[in-house]
Write a structure and sequence with these properties.
- The protein is an alpha/beta fold.
- The protein has two domains: 10-307, Rossmann fold, CATH 3.40.50.720; 314-351.
- The chain is built from ten helices and 14 strands.
- The strands form four sheets. Strands 3-2-1-4-6-7-12-14 form an eight-stranded mixed beta sheet, sandwiched between helices. A two-stranded parallel ribbon has the order 5-9. Strands 8-11 form a two-stranded parallel ribbon.
- Helix 2 (42-55) links the parallel strand 2 and strand 3.
- Helix 1 packs parallel to helix 2 (42-55), helix 3 (69-83) runs parallel beside helix 4 and helix 4 (106-134) runs parallel beside helix 5.
- The chain starts with 9 loop residues before the first strand and ends with a helix.
- The structure holds NADP nicotinamide-adenine-dinucleotide phosphate.
- The site of NADP nicotinamide-adenine-dinucleotide phosphate has 32 residues, from helix 1, strand 2, strand 6 and strand 8.
């Protein structure tokens, strides 16, 4: 009897040449997946190919810009032709501009939107083309706490991340409407130690840094891998992300003021910025820094994550408890008042 050979599972990761995307590619490789890699810079892609092979995966790389929908679609088709399908697609690529809104040009807003928001739309369209006919597959959207709570000096990026959230929620309802088994999950990240802070475009006077606590990309990648398997509606990683998201739901006005006072300082170090350094907004800074940024001495290797549905269930249970207790107390008070009234009537009759 001929044994049926099981097809190895395949993931495509955009923005796979550095930072979170590179760590995610390696995490899937560690679990033996075929890994499609999309990014622009060839030096970084070559480094990732070597990492993926070392980790036990089979790589296939594409030098493509996620702002180019046709190039992304073409890469997806080639992955399917080579590996037989796409099981998971991770939309991760991003660019940003660190600048106050009034020092950001319309063209810079357009470019960040094209990469950070539309890049996720293009990846999703390419993935759906192959997943919907098979009625299976999971699309992972790499988000941020900033998808819920915008911060000063990064309007381009925060707005694009919020747009991704809006896009994902619409699409999720459509897939449910169609009875599709294709799953979507959005993972909201805290600050991560990646090269972003040394190649993002910036007009700020001092060197950039993520707002602490900072986590290592591998710690994030483990949660992204788990989210790709379980596909929670959303996964919020780290207490800092939880605080920002929930805080913004409860006291957004107070947070506006807090960020006005502390936000600017929080996004910069005390070291003067090099005004002439290259940035990656339109073209890659074609080097191979790996997954990590310059914050290894401060970055934490483990982080907790939780599905926010537990928060919502907890809140619903707490509200139910309060409502139940109030109802019980009101009824008990009513019974007590009725007893006093009838005792009063009995006394009145005796008189
Ligand atoms: N680092 C953090 O603190 C943090 C916090 C919250 C969320 N996140 C999220 O994590 C994800 C990764 O961020 P990161 O910090 O790892 O960024 P990063 O270090 O700057 O890496 C970005 C990756 O995207 C690729 N990329 C950039 N523009 C691209 C384009 N137009 N087409 C294709 N690939 C492109 C880059 O490679 P090339 O330049 O070679 O194309 C690189 O591989 C993003 O979705 C970000 O929003 C990060």
């Amino acid at each position: 009897m001929r044994k049926q050979v099981e097809r190895k599972r395949t993931v495509v990761v955009t923005g796979a040449s550095a930072g979170v995307g590179r760590a995610v590619a390696c995490e899937f490789a560690r679990h033996g997946w075929n890994v499609g890699l999309i990014a622009r810079g060839e030096a970084g892609l070559h480094g990732t190919i070597e990492d993926v092979v070392r980790a036990g995966g089979r790589p296939m790389a594409f030098a493509a810009d996620v702002a180019d929908a046709d190039a992304v679609s073409q890469a997806a088709a080639e992955v399917v032709a080579a590996f037989g399908g796409i099981d998971v697609w991770v939309n991760n690529a991003m660019v940003t501009v660190y600048a106050p809104v009034q020092q950001t040009s319309a063209e810079e807003f357009r470019r960040v939107t094209e990469v950070t928001y539309l890049g996720q739309v293009h990846g999703t369209l390419a993935a759906l083309e192959h997943m919907v006919p098979k009625d299976s597959g999971t699309i992972v959207h790499i988000g941020s706490a900033l998808a819920y709570r915008s911060i000063p000096l990064q309007a381009t990026y925060c707005a694009a991340k919020a747009a991704v959230r809006g896009f994902v929620d619409s699409l999720r309802s459509e897939l449910l409407h169609d009875g599709s088994k294709v799953r979507l999950t959005m993972v909201q990240l805290p600050a991560v130690n990646t090269p972003q802070f040394d190649w993002a475009r910036s007009v700020l006077p001092r060197k950039l840094e993520p707002v602490p606590p900072i986590y290592q990309p591998e710690a994030i990648a483990r949660h992204v891998y788990a989210a790709a398997q379980a596909a929670p509606r959303e996964l919020w990683i780290g207490t800092s992300a939880w605080k920002a998201i929930v805080g913004n739901m409860v006291i957004p006005g107070w947070i506006d003021g807090y960020l006005a006072r502390h936000g600017y300082r929080g996004e910069m170090t005390s070291v003067r910025a090099n005004k002439h350094r290259a940035d990656n907004l339109y073209e890659p800074v074609d080097t191979d820094p790996g997954a990590h940024g310059r914050f290894d001495d401060r970055a934490v290797g483990h982080v907790a994550a939780a599905d926010p549905k537990w928060l919502k269930l907890g809140l619903a249970a707490a509200l139910g408890l309060v409502a139940g207790t109030t109802l019980f107390a009101t009824e008990a008070q009513g019974r007590h008042d009725a007893r006093r009234q009838s005792a009063g009537r009995r006394l009145a009759c005796r008189d």
